[in-house]
Description:
The protein is built from 20 helices and 21 strands.
Amino acid sequence: MAKKQFKAESKKLMELMINSIYTNKDIFLRELISNASDAIDKLHYKSLTNRKIKVNTNEFAINVSIDKENRKLIISDNGIGMDKDELESNLGTIARSGSLLFKEENDKKENIDIIGQFGVGFYSAFMVASEICVISKAYGAEKAYKWVSKGIDGYSISEGTKDSYGTDIILTIKDNTDDEDYDKYLEEYTIQSLIKKYSDYITYPIKMNISRSELKEGTNDEYETIVKEETVNSLIPLWKRPKNKISAEDYDTFYSDKFFDYEKPMKVLHFSMEGRISFNALLYIPAHAPYDYYSKEYEKGLQLYSNGVLIMEKCSELLPDYFSFVKGVIDSPDLSLNISREMLQQDKVLNMIAKNVENKISKEITNMLKNDRENYEKFFDAFGLQLKVGICNNYGMDKEKLQDFLLFHSSFNNNYTTLKEYISRMKEKQETIYYACSESVDKARMLPQTEAVIEKGFEVLYLTEYGDEFVMQTLSEYEGKKFANVCASETNLDSDEDREEIDKLNKDNKEMLDVMQKAINDVKEVRFTRHLKDHPVCLTSEGGISTQMEKVMQVMPNSDGIKATMILEVNESHPIADKLKKLYKKDKQELENYSKILYAQARLIEGLPIDNPTELSNLICKELS
Ligand code: ADP
């Protein structure tokens, strides 16, 4: 029989398994039992939705048996089974290639419990087995097939014998080594405790032959060993158990096992509803964003059960996009098993559950913000971007639900602030919430316009993320207070008197300012200002598109030509103002050069690129010499 090679990634993963110095080898059993349970789920679901399939659901079970003499540990299920092709493709390639990718990315970080927590599944059995033999018969098939492998150097597939559908996984347990005790995996007691510990929530009976000493019949003190088949797990899924019977560890183990996260969840939400519709929910807020979270590959959704039967792995209708990071399980007896993908959106029961779920998540996040700020900030760092996207989507339809979850850096102190907190600190007659945009908090803080607003005693929010400004524009106001970009020309904090004086100054120097504008050409207007403190110049923008937004838009496809309407403002009390006036009288060419240099400076301060650096550099040199 020809030996076949594993796919490259599988090989790497297997190497990792076999040579693993990983201490928790125990988890292999949980992985195999979980696969067995999945296989039964599949057949169970089929049998409920397809009348041609007739199986006795009461007979569904996972059997675990030990043959000590031959060092075999056998895990059998009467689930859907695998045909020859499935054996080949399912066990020849690693299914969840994400785990390997993850492993490579995090190779340098020590102590990341990737093997145990990320769910590498089947291959983990190579941590304890020198050989694995899988005999499987697909439901409805005539032939059974046998898959055998000793590890890295490949596997073989041949016909096998098996009476009924399902799968037997036969492990040959490794011999003990100096520092590793493998014999324990042939002990009834160890296996029984491992099942209790890791697989108790499995909804099908896990059966084992258990030997117990019992009093011999007709005697008072003579004992004999009786072997009886017993169900080891308690069969009630975690989400249906009373909360006071569940430990934090139970919740965490279930989470990492089901959702393949190496880190404990940040929050657990366990609740149920009874009444017109009833359901049990066990939801988790992860402590970090999955590696593919902000990519197209990420699929949101909750596992959907109908009375303990898994009917959908990822039901996306149960979660709004802005809460797509939530993981978990919903179980409701009121759902029809035949629910189809197309029907989902109109399903009344499902919609009611979804509403309820959303409310609970919302409350939990609000609570966290109120009572557990430290964790909340971590949460926001991981998922804040998703919340912001949620505000902008659907023309701002959901903004009211989400705006209070936002956190911003601000000029108030070094910590994050919410909009509510900003409002509570507003000055008596303040009608506007000010913000400044730049790539970093430091840059936003150092903008001349920011300084000017702070100087007047107002707090400024610092927006540093891609798209933040769209969020502000979508919100448009908060508790009746409008948002204003400190760099917008409309944001003018001058008093009426100041304004009049400045207007007059601009009128008196109109011709000179026009010469400057023509020299620069990129700006709509050049004018004097009074709110710049010590800075010579700044750029403000007029209308909806700010200079920062222009930067964001330019990297997006199909947005060429979108430009901010800019105004170059010159500090009228800066010595440069007098210099310009003098040049206007004496040397117009020089005035034009100065204008170009000043404009370039203003662009640099804003973090905008310079169109023609060579020309600028020549100009500066000319002035310097
Ligand atoms: P995962 O369970 O994460 O998909 P595994 O490596 O554990 O990854 O298993 C790979 C695939 O092999 C499974 O997705 C499943 O299709 C199949 N498989 C494993 N064990 C069984 C089983 N006992 N019965 C049927 N199919 C199985």
